[in-house]
UniProtKB/TrEMBL annotation:
Protein name: Alpha/beta fold hydrolase
Source organism of the structure: Pontibacter mangrovi
GO molecular function, one term: hydrolase activity
Keywords assigned by UniProt, alphabetized: Hydrolase
GO-annotated cellular components: membrane
Keyword Transferase applies: no
InterPro entries linked to this entry: AB_hydrolase_1, AB_hydrolase_fold, AB_hydrolase_sf, Epox_hydrolase-like
Length: 298
């Protein structure tokens, strides 16, 4: 049962649910063709990918889940919401769907969750499409102070500086650079977090971003398993949360990396540039399929 506040014209998808020990996970599964699995960041949910899915589902199978604590998934009070736990529930969804030969589309906090899956199951991942994301501990982890290591990236610091604001204030501050984003769309992000007057300190989006340094170190030790995966990076250069130096780190990380900068784009390219993103993603998948075909027949 979808909530009354959800605009079904904006989000015209059939809901699916998977019962996990952590809670009930909501996901959508639209279209047929090459599989694209979309992982959202914080404090977002699959709603952020709605316009992208409407385009890509014509020729692709699009999977987009709401991580536990977000969107239409359960929001258990006694779950730890740490990155490792989210990665485990995401892996359980992938096992349930029995997906192979997938393209992971990751953004923000969704990047380490998706890359953790790729490290464990590189044989299932054909390619990665990355939007503005960070994983500081995967780079120069030792260069960060003790305080910085406890927070995961710039968005974590931003959230923790806003612990006493309401969810409504938080969403409006995060989206303040998206000039053309209508108020009813912003409200879909507010309502999906639960009580709009709730303090941010009680939300999964704040709780999940602490205590991740050790987990990132473990991922980094396994990095060679994913460095060769073909990767497309779509980067909003006006992002005030994640600076351009993060893009430089990712470019050095992946061996086969294509970068498309969006000069006027911010942190939420999915809201600003869905048509362009869909075109780039589709072309990237076609090119990788072509390369694979040529390799098999060479």
């Amino acid at each position: 049962m979808k909530p009354d506040w959800l605009d079904k014209k904006e989000y015209p998808f059939r809901s699916h649910y998977l019962d996990l020990e952590a809670g009930r996970m909501h996901y959508i599964d639209e279209g047929e063709g090459p599989v694209v699995v979309m992982i959202h960041g914080t404090p977002a949910w699959s709603f952020m990918y709605r316009n992208l899915i409407k385009i890509l589902r014509k020729d692709h199978r699009c999977i987009a889940m709401d991580l536990i604590g977000f969107g239409l998934s359960d929001k258990p009070k006694d779950w730890n919401y740490k990155p490792r736990a989210h990665a485990q529930t995401f892996e359980q969804l992938m096992e349930h769907l029995q997906l192979t030969d997938i393209t992971l589309l990751v953004h923000d906090f969704g990047a380490p969750i998706g890359l953790a899956y790729a490290i464990k199951h590189p044989e299932n991942v054909r390619g990665v499409v990355m939007l503005n994301s960070w994983t500081w501990s995967l780079s120069k982890h030792q260069s960060f102070s003790k305080a910085s290591k406890y927070l995961v990236g710039p968005l974590g610091k931003f959230l923790h500086s806003k612990l006493n604001v309401t969810t409504h204030t938080l969403i409006h501050e995060l989206f303040k650079d998206e000039d053309d984003l209508p108020e009813p769309i912003k409200e879909h992000y507010v309502k999906a977090l639960g009580n709009p007057e709730e303090s941010v300190r009680d939300l999964a989006c704040a709780r999940e971003l602490v205590g991740a340094s050790k987990w990132y170190e473990e991922l980094w030790k396994e990095r060679k398993k994913i460095q060769g995966i073909p990767t497309l990076i779509l980067w909003g250069e006006r992002d005030k949360l994640i600076k351009i130096d993060a893009l430089q780190r990712w470019k050095k990380f992946f061996h086969e990396c294509y970068v498309i900068p969006f000069e006027s784009g911010g942190h939420f390219l999915q809201e600003e540039n869905a048509e362009e993103i869909a075109s780039y993603v589709s072309n990237f998948i076609k090119e990788e399929q072509k390369k694979k075909h040529e390799l098999i027949h060479s």
